[in-house]
Specification:
By secondary structure, the protein is mainly β. It is about 0% helix and about 50% strand. It is built from no helices and twelve strands. The strands form two sheets. Strands 2, 4, 5, 6, 9, 10, 11 and 12 form an eight-stranded mixed β-sheet that branches. Strands 1-3-8-7 form a four-stranded antiparallel β-sheet, with no helix packed on it.
Length: about 130
């Protein structure tokens, strides 16, 4: 059974940092593009970063570019999201998700995403 499990969320003050992890199991990690998404109350889900074995480096939405860094440990089938310079508007539930792709990452930003697998999410709250 395919599974994605996020961890690392919590409460942090503005300007602080958090590192999220997403452990994948039950599918061939290298065949999938993995993304981080977030959804704040009353707002649309937003794709914020993506990484794929078929591309070099991760992609980022403008809202997080320069502050967040996504990385991958393919041996452990785990992706990470290092979040620095956090702002109150970063408060959301953060999800990781995977879609089978041999062509790299998907387009980021707000919208509906047809992913193959989703994690249950982890809450990130940034206080001002």
């Amino acid at each position: 059974e395919a599974r994605l499990v996020e961890s690392g969320g919590g409460l942090v003050q503005a300007g602080g940092s958090l590192r999220l992890s997403c452990a994948a199991s039950g599918f061939t990690f290298d065949d999938y593009a993995i993304g981080w998404f977030r959804q704040a109350p009353g707002k649309e889900r937003e794709g914020i970063s993506c990484i794929s074995s078929s591309e070099d480096g991760a992609h980022y939405a403008d809202s997080v570019k320069g502050r967040f860094t996504m990385s991958s440990n393919n041996v452990e089938s785990t992706v990470y999201l290092q979040m620095n310079s956090l702002k109150p508007e970063d408060t959301a539930v953060y999800y990781c998700a995977a879609v089978k792709s041999y062509y790299g990452c998907f387009e980021l930003g707000p919208g509906a995403y047809d992913m193959d697998y989703w994690g249950k999410g982890t809450q990130v709250t940034v206080s001002s």
